[in-house]
Amino acid sequence: MEKRHRVFIAINLPGEIKKELAGFYDKWPELPAKWTAKDNLHITLEFLGDLTDVEIGDACKITAEVVKRHNSFDLNLNKILYGPPKKNPPRLVWVEGQESKELADLKNDLQESLLEKIRFRPDEKGFVTHITLARISEWEFRKFELEERPEINENIDLMFTAESIEVMESELKRGGPVYTILESHNLGE
After folding, report:
1. Can you list the alpha helix ranges (DSSP code H) found in 68-169?
2. Which end of the chain is least crowded, N or C, by CB within 10 Å?
3. For residues 80 and 138, what is the distance between their CA atoms, to the nearest angstrom?
4. Which residues in 19-127 belong to E strands, given as ranges?
């Protein structure tokens, strides 16, 4: 049986943005959550699932073609809150970004192009620009009385330029996922 790899396509964050976001981890010590390793912070564009080596090659080739049609663009991260919206109890602590036409166009182009060649299940819930900061233990979170639940609603103002997108592999390890960049593709100027 052919080995499969968990693959996703993402925008990685600059080091200074990762450091700034990781600085919030100590703000809610009572929260029953597993915080994302600083180096793993990213914006997922598409989660492709378990792919064969041939499918990974196709994903890399398609990604390289798609980035040629898109220029680099600015992203503004503006809020830390529970996510996804209206989920109770919440599953995540995440950073949301302002809507970006450039990001939406890139994501749609990428999804349509990938679906022509690779079988995966696109997210049907609609895309929200977000970065997962922590995964909440729902079981532990439910033990809080409603008024004891930590309030997470932090306005931030972090901006960076998305200059590339990466095809990434996620290996699930005992200490948490380990991400490896398989290929990086620069957006146009």
Report:
1. 101-115, 138-141
2. N
3. 18
4. 33-35, 42-51, 73-83, 92-97
Report the alpha-carbon distance of residue 132 to residue 41 in Å, rounded: 7
The structure tokens listed for 117 are: 């060649």
How far apart CA 106 and CA 70 sit, in angstroms, is: 7
Mean pLDDT, contiguous 10-residue spans, the chain (189 residues):
88 96 92 92 94 95 96 96 84 93 95 91 79 91 81 94 96 88 92
How far apart CA 38 and CA 21 sit, in angstroms, is 8
Domains and CATH numbers, the chain: 5-186 (3.90.1140.10)
Per-residue pLDDT, 12: 96
Instruction: Find out whether 17 and 171 touch, Cβ atoms under 8 Å.
Output: no
Residue 175 has what pLDDT?
80
As a residue count, the chain comes to: 189
pLDDT value for 1 = 66
Is-contact 132 177, C-beta < 8 A? no
pLDDT computed for residue 84 by the predictor:
86
C-alpha 171/C-alpha 183 separation (Å) is 16
pLDDT recorded at residue 61? 97
Rounded Cα distance, 82 and 62, in Å: 33
CB 51, CB 59: distance < 8 Å = yes
Q: Which run of H or of E encompasses 168?
A: strand 164-173
